[in-house]
Design brief:
One of its GO terms (molecular function) is 2-hydroxy-3-oxopropionate reductase activity. The protein is α/β, with parallel strands linked by helices. Helices cover 56% and strands 12% of the residues. It has 15 helices and nine strands. The strands form two sheets. A six-stranded parallel sheet has the order 3-2-1-4-5-6, sandwiched between helices. Helix 10 crosses helix 15. The protein starts with a helix and ends in a 5-residue tail after the last helix.
Length: 305
């Protein structure tokens, strides 16, 4: 009943299907519910469906059921293979969403996957935006994500109110795939930044400096960053509960190094950090937060972690 009331009290707002209710997807979909949108969700984990229902959404039993009556379909899954799995085939989004629907993929995938999806969707009369995000779990919860979008201006304009319920910095970056290209650059900068912070933490601790004081003063100057603001407690407390897993950043570093190679851009520092992320994953830390790059620096410095 609550969903019916929400829909009827906001007849101008599109009905939304949300596919993928993970660390990012759950709080993001809940922010749309708080903004008065009618959200029907589907994901593989029953407890995540229960969470959506408890927040006032509707749990669907399949992708087809979730997208059948949706004006807008939003996807938030780990990588390109998952986007392809939920989009294509008889049980996928393209076969079951209605013509005229807008598909917004907020996953972080290869630019080419986004371009291919937009072409396939066009044949079905479905419009597509790639709209990956930055800000991590905290940004998703607080609805302050940075959203980088690729696609048509008219579709972006239609989606803008939805994006405004999810994030703070919302920019159309160019045609299909452009959002993913900018996200790849984002992940390059974040990984290099975390690595630099991790090296500084080990250097400071080995030097006997008060680490909390040092990070506070560093963050107030040119060395300060959103990364340091968000991650300094992870470093201080050695708390690597995942907000964004090493496994996913490993995937993203593969995207950016491959895309850079395709366009002839050299990423010497990015390539080194990509290998450090890969080594951390190989040592069994793939499920930890990407701030766990600190563990790799500690190991290189002779610590047993």
């Amino acid at each position: 009943m609550s969903n019916e009331r929400a829909a009827s009290s906001h007849p101008d707002r599109p009905a939304i299907a949300w596919i993928g209710l993970g660390i990012m997807g759950s709080p993001m979909s809940e922010n749309l519910l708080k903004a008065g949108y009618d959200v029907t969700g589907y994901t593989l984990e029953q407890d995540k469906l229960d969470r959506l229902a408890a927040a006032g959404g509707t749990a669907a039993g399949s992708i087809a059921e979730a997208v059948r009556d949706a004006d807008v379909v939003i996807t938030m899954v780990p990588a390109s293979p998952q986007v392809e799995a939920i989009s294509y085939g008889p049980d996928g989004i393209l076969e079951n969403a209605r013509p005229g629907a807008l598909l917004i993929d907020m996953s972080s995938i290869t630019p080419q996957t986004s371009v291919d999806l937009a072409k396939a969707a066009k044949d079905k009369g479905i419009r597509v935006l790639d709209a990956p995000v930055s800000g991590g779990e905290a940004g998703a919860v607080e609805a302050v994500l940075s959203i980088m979008v690729g696609g048509e201006q008219a579709d972006f304009d239609q989606a803008k109110p939805i994006f405004e319920a999810l994030g703070k910095t919302i920019v159309l970056c160019g045609p299909h795939g452009s959002g993913q290209t900018v996200k790849a650059a984002n992940q390059l900068i974040v990984a290099v930044n975390i690595q630099a912070c991790a090296e500084a933490v080990v250097f400071l601790e080995r030097s006997g400096v008060d680490l909390k004081a040092a990070l506070d003063v560093l963050n107030g100057g040119l060395a300060g960053s959103t990364v340091l603001t968000r991650k300094k407690d992870n470093f201080l407390n050695r708390d690597f509960k995942p907000g964004f897993r090493i496994d996913l950043h490993h995937k993203d570093m593969g995207i950016v190094t491959d895309a850079a190679r395709n366009v002839g851009a050299s990423l010497p520092v990015g390539a080194v950090v990509a290998q450090l992320v890969a080594s951390l994953r190989a040592q069994g830390d793939g499920g930890l937060d990407h701030s766990a790059l600190l563990r790799a620096v500690e190991r290189l410095s002779g610590a047993q972690v």
